[in-house]
Amino acid sequence: MNYKLLGRSGLKVSELCLGTMGFGTEAGWGADKDISFAIMDAYANAGGNFLDTANMYKLGTSEKIIGDYMSNHDRDYFVLATKYTLKDNITNPNASGNNRKNMMRSVEESLKRLKTDFIDVLYLHIWDNITPIDEVLRAMDDLIKQGKINYAAISDTPAWVVARGNTLAELMGWSQFIALQVEYSLLARTAERELIPMAKHFGMTVTPWAPLAGGALTGKYQRGEQGRIKAESKRRDGRSLSITETVVAIAAELGVSESHVALNWTRQQGFSCIPIVGATKVDQLIDNLNTVNITLSQEQMQRLNDVSAIELGFPGDFFAEEAVRNNSFGGFYDKVEKR
């Protein structure tokens, strides 16, 4: 794999991120320790260095498995990202949320499970609608100054909150969020309304979770396979099946797997994007890693864009209509300059 800069930083990460939510067998599914080790070996051997986990994935087992792996490997080679916010114990009222107290406690617990002195990227996992964003950024900046984390990032948070946060950070001289993690795939494009334009404006890298829509975009449901997604899920409705049929058709044209098509659609959107690829089997990961060896044509991208198109709503659709009506804003400004 090649390496990309993560947001407005000098941090070099591989072009696919390894999602480790499935490391551990709690809840009746996932990869045990040996398989998880084999997955990380295969990822590292392919040039991968960017690992994504969270304090509460598999009740902390994901972090513990990564920590055991790091004990026998080069810690500095890997860029390790974890998260705080969601409840990881029931000891006290502040064992969840975005507040400073929970952040400090969560980071200390994550460092122990990960068996490391520092976390490369710390994400706020999900916005709690309670904690002031300046409290979050000030606390993250303090952790950066203490050397316990290297970079700040944010996930599953409204665009206006992230924008306010990065603006405050720039004003106050605090470390800004360099990455934004959101759901984004051919089946879930609503992030294009506000979140992705905001990320582009601030130079943030988008790290989509569920870029394969829980496996729906691999065509497994058309093949009659079962999974953890319920039959009534939107990922299995008529629109989703139509999108997946297009993915399957393009995959057949290229002679590649459906996952290559779905993942490359996110990677070729014209903004900094590093999809998170989860795996609970080594062959599953190896197939997904081959994504970097293909490129979708402009015509194929257009077919996928058309079949998965969403309404941007106001003001996005209004801007688009005005651009068409006036033969683009650029043409209007050209006339202004001539005067």
CATH superfamily of the largest domain: NADP-dependent oxidoreductase domain
Helix/strand-derived category reads alpha/beta
Total beta strand runs: 10
H/E series:
EEEHEHEHEHEHEHEHHEHHHH
Number of distinct helices: 12
**Rg measurement, Å:** 21 Å
Word description of this protein:
- With 339 residues, this protein is an alpha/beta fold.
- The chain folds into two domains: 3-308, Alpha-Beta Barrel (TIM Barrel); 310-339, no CATH class.
- The chain has twelve helices and ten strands.
- It has an eight-stranded parallel beta sheet with strand order 9-8-7-6-5-4-3-10, covered by helices on one side. It has a two-stranded antiparallel sheet with strand order 1-2.
- α1 (33-45) runs parallel beside α9 and α7 (238-254) packs antiparallel against α10.
- The chain is globular, with a radius of gyration of 21 Å.
In short:
This protein is α/β, with parallel strands linked by helices and 339 residues long.
